[in-house]
Design goal:
Elements: H1 3-11, H2 19-29, H3 38-45, H4 49-60, H5 63-67, H6 74-81, H7 83-90, H8 105-131, H9 138-147, H10 149-158, H11 166-174, H12 178-188, H13 196-199, H14 207-220, H15 229-242, H16 246-262, H17 271-277, H18 297-313, E1 319-326, E2 331-338, E3 350-352, H19 358-362, E4 368-371, H20 373-383, H21 387-390, E5 396-403, E6 406-414, H22 424-440
Antiparallel strand pairs: 1-2, 1-6, 2-3, 4-5, 5-6
Helix pairs in contact: 1-12, 3-6, 8-9, 8-10, 8-14, 8-16, 9-14, 14-15, 15-16, 15-22, 16-17
Length: 441
């Protein structure tokens, strides 16, 4: 199914909400009108992304909300609708339940898990922003709640849990990056256009938007393991943006996970806590900060392989290569690769570090380099290095990795299979991860 058709099919339906939310909502709405408080109803909406989605759709087509980037609070939306309108809207809601042959209990549990991750991200974004002195944070809270919704609808339509990471599976199915799919989702429903200032490209890369994205990435990546550099890098970045210590920023994660687990709307709401506490599977007690003193070759090698998996699985680079520095012969040789076919000459590439060559200049110090396709052509012409021919024609990015003062190797990433350009967010994530590893060696 094409993306536009799929999104339109979502927009044409009224979607159910979590059963526990519906039960509490019916109890709240059954009270005498003098006892119904908009604050209580707003809190219910903010506890279940499906209920928030239903409410936002009711006002999303409003001309004023489509013309301005202002995202009103949930309580304000309820007041604008009025008590009678809200009761009429909520009175027609149905619960999300399994249907034999159409929607399995396992899928419903997975949906609950991904809705819970949205809740964790929302609380985390609110916490980090508040600690940084931001006073108005509900817009980021709502944006975080809605971030995973298209992926949840994908699970419901598919009635199966993909083997790949969910957001990656959604992106590959429709052939677009998940943030682009999310923008199309907001416009098609429609939801208030103010969401695009936080979830889309418009509005620039503000600190609020960066913290929101870091909160979402942290919540969605909980199962990576709290001890892994590929997960804690987001928390460290948030700490720098907010002026917090790592311990304070990490404490926000623990608090968010705990709040969601203590106030569940579905069994899946306990999954983030299980992931953080490592309750499932064999328990390992790794050293949380082992990468900060990496001097042993085995530990360095392990961190490089973890970084490569993160670049491929989370940042979605199609080809990821690590060229190790060989001191004896003073050259770079391919040590690890992801996404390169066996018959590709790139697998056998040997990069010489002759004085004055491009790679000799690159590896002279810790640095990164992003080359659009036109720059690649200029490099090929100027330096004549066969590597620029072997690696194709697309954008690429490079980053040198040092262990102390010693060159360890060079990371190379691109979208060499599809030819897509490397966007700014992906390049920033690439630099942040590898730079962090460099500082810890």
């Amino acid at each position: 199914m094409e993306l536009a058709n799929w999104l339109q099919s979502i927009a044409e339906r009224r979607w159910p909400i979590l059963p526990d939310t519906l039960s509490d909502l019916r109890q709240a709405c059954a009270r005498h009108s003098d006892l119904i408080r908009f604050t209580d109803m707003a809190n219910l909406c903010l506890s279940d992304p499906l209920l928030l989605f239903d409410l936002m759709r009711m006002v999303g087509g409003s001309r004023s909300l489509q013309q301005h980037d202002v995202l009103p609070s949930v309580e304000k939306i309820l007041m604008l609708i009025g008590l009678e309108g809200a009761l009429g809207r909520f009175g027609r809601l149905t619960p999300l339940e399994s249907v034999p042959g159409r929607l399995s209990p396992e899928v419903i549990e997975a949906v609950g898990d991904w809705l819970a991750r949205g809740r964790v991200a929302a609380i985390l974004a609110k916490t980090w922003l508040s600690q940084a002195g931001e006073l108005k944070v509900e817009d980021c809270y709502m944006a975080a709640l809605l971030y995973n919704l298209p992926a949840c609808f994908y699970l419901i339509y598919r009635n199966d849990i993909p083997d790949k990471p969910l957001l990656q599976a959604v992106s590959e199915t429709f052939g677009v990056a998940y943030p682009q799919l999310l923008e199309a989702f907001v416009r098609t429903m429609p939801l208030p256009v103010g969401l695009l200032a936080l979830l889309g490209k418009q509005g620039g890369a503000s600190r609020r938007k960066q913290i929101l994205r870091l909160a979402v990435a942290t919540a969605n990546g909980l199962e990576q393991g709290w001890w892994r550099a590929t997960w804690t890098v987001g928390i460290e970045a948030a700490a720098r943006l907010t002026g917090l210590t790592f311990e304070e920023a990490y404490g926000g994660v623990v608090n968010a996970v705990r709040q969601v687990a203590l106030h569940p709307r579905a069994p899946g709401y306990a999954h983030p806590a299980k992931a953080l506490l490592l309750l499932e599977g064999e328990y390992h007690r790794p050293r949380q900060h082992a990468v900060s003193t990496l001097t042993d070759a085995e530990q360095l090698d392990l961190s490089i392989r973890e970084a490569m998996r993160h670049l491929a699985n989370d940042l979605h680079f199609e080809r990821v290569l690590f060229f190790q520095y060989v001191r004896d012969n003073h050259h770079l040789r391919l040590r690890y690769q992801l996404g390169v076919a066996e018959d590709q000459p790139l697998r056998r590439a040997r990069i010489e570090l002759e004085p004055g060559s491009f790679f000799a200049l690159l590896t002279s110090k810790p640095q990164s380099f992003h080359a659009p396709a036109a720059v690649r052509a200029q490099l090929r012409q100027k330096y004549g290095d066969p590597f620029f021919t072997l690696s194709g024609e697309s954008d690429f990015a490079l980053l040198t990795l040092f262990s102390g003062q010693t060159l360890a190797g060079v990371f190379y990433v691109d979208h060499g299979n599809s030819g897509r350009a490397i966007d700014e967010d992906s390049y920033h994530g690439f630099k942040s991860l590898i730079t962090r590893l460099t500082h810890r060696f």
